[in-house]
Amino acid sequence: MILVYIEHKAGQVKKVSLEALNLARQMASSEGTSCKAFVVGNDSLSVELGNYGVDEILKLPSADHLSQDQMVEVCSQIMASNNVKYFILGLSTLARSIAGQISIKTQSAMISGITGFRYDAGKGIYRKSVFSGKAFADISSTTKSSVLTVTANCFSAEPVGSQKANETIVELSIPAAKIKIIETKLVQGKTPLTEAAVVVSAGRGMKDPSNWGMIEELADLLGATTACSRPVADVGWRPHHEHVGQTGIAIRPNVYIAIGISGAIQHLAGVNNSRKIIVINKDPEAPFFKAADYGVCGDLFEIIPKLNEALKRLKS
Amino acid sequence: MKLLVCISKTPDTTSKISFDSTGTKFNEEGIQYILNPYDEWYALVRAIELKEKFGGEVHVIHVGGSSSDMVIRKALAIGADAAFRVDIDPKDSFHTATQIANFAKAKDYQVVLLGKETIDHNASEVGPMLAAILDLPFLSYANKLEINDSTATVQIEVEGGVEVVEVQLPIVLSAAKGLAEQRIPNMKGIMDAKKKPLEILQAVECESRIQLVNYILPPAKTQVEMVAPENIDRLVSILRDELKLI
Ligand SMILES: Cc1cc2nc3c(=O)[nH]c(=O)nc-3n(C[C@H](O)[C@H](O)[C@H](O)COP(=O)(O)OP(=O)(O)OC[C@H]3O[C@@H](n4cnc5c(N)ncnc54)[C@H](O)[C@@H]3O)c2cc1C
Ligand SMILES: Nc1ncnc2c1ncn2[C@@H]1O[C@H](COP(=O)(O)O)[C@@H](O)[C@H]1O
């Protein structure tokens, strides 16, 4: 059986969990096995998940938010008690933390950050990005069961039908939490960078933090999340969580728009898996143009305000 | 306080990546290895800071062959007290975690620190696996760590923000940006490092759980389309018609 862990909040399933379901469905049909979903919490997701081809929902009702150590326990238990061959999670910060732990507790192989999949001679082969995005590795597992995590924006999250999945309540023992959550501080509103389909990013070419209004405006117009280069976060022009690159966050949006960023190799390491890259830079020699699909060589202080005006006109 | 920092090495990012003709072996020729930045800048420095505050020792451990001794010496130069190297090339993350766990078990480390990820494969796998083998709580992507008696208060990165959590020691923790400030080794540190112990350990038997089928290089970028800066209309049409953003 293939089991997908569904992350959700306020009745809303995380997109990357739906993308994980896409991989799970492909694998289930090739292997002639069922594809089930594991839901922790009280949200009712049977209609939505049914639309994504889930055969059955295994649900662990819980009014409380489980801590990561509790999640490891319940996921390991459900894997063991259901003879799960593949346990799949969308790659979120939670998944990054718990998937490896679950693999140990269940003696499974662990393949993380899957970006593609194929069958070869009856064997699943998973593709992932390695060497800071400069290459891919194809990997297979050599054990009876595997824990897999799926990178965001690599598989489609389109619904495949309209059925309702049956919900089965499972009983698992939830141990006392070892990790106690004291406080959660969330930046409201925006899609997290790792999941964003569109990212508008800016660098030292902006000259001053007070100039970022036009970047935020462009991001709003495009429904994008904002990011920045490292020096800009280092000097405090932008918050640290926006820093992308080798030492920041690695992202793979459908569209990455880089404004006033030179395209140093350490920056590219975090963004070169973006599907399409647009570069706006006044220096024709900027290395970023070599990694771009579209380039505009000119002054951002002229281009961005005009572009924003044009987009506003289009929208009204 | 006894602290253990797991250190890995990684090709310098400016390295040109290539593979042998079978596509299964990474060409190491001409590759410059560096100490993995997350391990060096954040995990190791925070461990040293805690030692400076509470006393004790910082040990570093690495799983790899003798070509890694350079990066291990760097960790000693920054301020680790002793180093251990398990003399085997890692087969996969499970293999690495097993070797480290075998060393760390029954040694009473209060905090085991790792980097958030090794930047050449961005896996973030060794930390969670190590914690699970040692049966200790795992704190992933920590950017603040304070210790008070036997309680650690840790701020971890979560989607779109941070979470502050409390946990009893001992713990395993992976370090993200912000946990500490990078320290540059000074001359004295570099000299002292030569005299610090670097113990070589035998690996334990462990089967890897994954198999590399092959590596591939991404297809070369097709030509970039340059748009004139005055041509805002074309830019809009790219965003609207080609990329379907509006
Ligand atoms: C170990 C290591 C790790 C690193 N990790 C990262 C990382 O994770 N992420 C990261 O981003 N960097 C990282 N760096 C830093 C990286 O090497 C670069 O220094 C950095 O990315 C440069 O940032 P930038 O492009 O914003 O600034 P600059 O390199 O200064 O580029 C500014 C660009 O803006 C353009 N510009 C200026 N004015 C205008 C204008 N009016 N209109 C249009 N264009 C304009 C300029 O032509 C220039 O290309 C790392 C470095 C090291 C050594
Ligand atoms: N060969 C190794 N020896 C010691 N520690 C390692 C090794 N490989 C990885 N680590 C540690 O595990 C962390 C996460 O690495 P990874 O799971 O490879 O992304 C690194 O930042 C190191 O702290």
Describe the structure.
The complex is a heterodimer of chains A (316) and B (246). Chain A is an alpha/beta fold and 316 residues long. Chain A has two domains: 2-169, HUPs (Rossmann fold, 3-Layer(aba) Sandwich); 193-315, TPP-binding domain (Rossmann fold, 3-Layer(aba) Sandwich), CATH 3.40.50.1220. Chain A contains eight helices and 17 strands. Chain A has helices spanning 15-31, 46-50, 68-81, 93-105, 213-222, 230-234, 265-271, 300-315, and strands at 2-6, 8-9, 12-13, 35-40, 56-60, 86-90, 109-120, 123-130, 135-141, 146-150, 166-169, 180-186, 198-202, 225-228, 255-259, 276-281, 294-297. Chain A is elongated and about 60 Å long. Chain B is 28% helix and 30% strand. Chain B is globular, with a radius of gyration of 21 Å. The relative contact order of chain B is 0.18. Classes of the chains: A alpha/beta (316), B alpha/beta (246). Strand 12 of chain A pairs antiparallel with strand 9 (161-168) of chain B, so a sheet runs across the interface. The structure holds flavin-adenine dinucleotide (FAD) and adenosine monophosphate (AMP). The site of adenosine monophosphate has 23 residues of chain B, from helix 1, strand 4, helix 3, strand 6 and helix 4.
